[in-house]
Each structure stands twice: as C-alpha cells, then as structure tokens.
Amino acid sequence: MELSESQEMILKRIEAYWRKHGFGPAIRDLMRECGFRSPRAVAFHLDNLERMGLIEQNGKARSIRVLGRGVDMVDVVPIFGTIPAGPAEVQTQLPLGELAVPRQLSSAGVRQHGFALKVRGDSMIGAGIHDGDLAIVEQRPARPEDIVVALVDGQSTLKRLIRRRGGFCLKSENPKYPLIQPVERLEIQGVVVGIFRKI
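The structure corresponding to this sequence follows.
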C-alpha cells in the first residue's frame, strides 16, 4: 500500500503522540505538527487513512490511533479525578482526561467498565501505590484482601478490604494510618487492578 509523504507523516505523529501522552492527538495538534494550514486538510487525510484500515477514529476526543503498528493494542479508560490514599474525605470526581492501558495488561472488565483515578496521599505505599500514581479500577464485586476504591460513610478512599468480626473494614498499607470502620455504610466502587506511574 503506497502512502503519500503527508499520510506517512501523520501516522508517525499519531504514534509519537500516543507514546508521549498516553492518548491520541487532536486534529489541531496534527495540523500544527504536520504543517497543515487548516483542520479540513488533516481530516481529509485521516478519513483516507481510516478507509485504508490504518487508523481508527471513534468520535471521542483524542482517540485517533494507528492500527497494526503497536499502538492499536490498547484500551482507553477515562481518568475520573483523584482518590485520597490517606484519611477518607468527601471527594468530587472531575474528569482529567484518558489513559491508554496496554491490552495485554487489561481485561474485558476494564474495557467495559474501567476507569482511572489519580492517587493522592501515602497510606498505600506498603502496597507499592504512591502519591501521584494512576490507579486503574475495574467495577466488579470485591473480595477480602482486594485493594478497593470505597465510599465509607459518604467519604472516598483507596484501601485494602479486610474482613473483621463478621463485617468489613478498610486497612491502609502504612502503619501511621488506623483501620477505617464504617459507622453506617461501606460501598465498594471498584477494585484496583493496576497502577500506572510516570518515571
């Protein structure tokens, strides 16, 4: 399949953008990086590349990706704000973008019901989860000893779920934090299945 110089340049820029950011470029990013004068010219090339089966555009922002050249085997999950890894606190989830998870490290559950949260705090350092990490979360029932995203008496936290005296409580992986015993309600919002950390 013969590609024009512009088409090859666009493919390389999309791949480079995924490697650097973990998500795809916007049309205006490609316009600027490839030297096009209008978004319409970029869209024209993208549509042709999609017809050739070389890229995928699914209509979501920053989701353009190259197929068959290494970056197609990813699942893209939304980043829904931050999660305290310290004392539980009231938390408002604000979208921060998207995270590309390599398909071999993902699962059907992550593809269908997964999301990511930026960790804030040091209560889970004993489990290798540090401040600033992105926790990849699957929405599924939790088992004892799972690391979970929980809503405990209306406040969010990331902790290990343990069984205690016929009920459940939340345990940190840092000795300076006490067990969290729910007073009224404990709701598990998802199970942590992976951690992403920038070096």
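The two ends are 38 Å apart (CA to CA).
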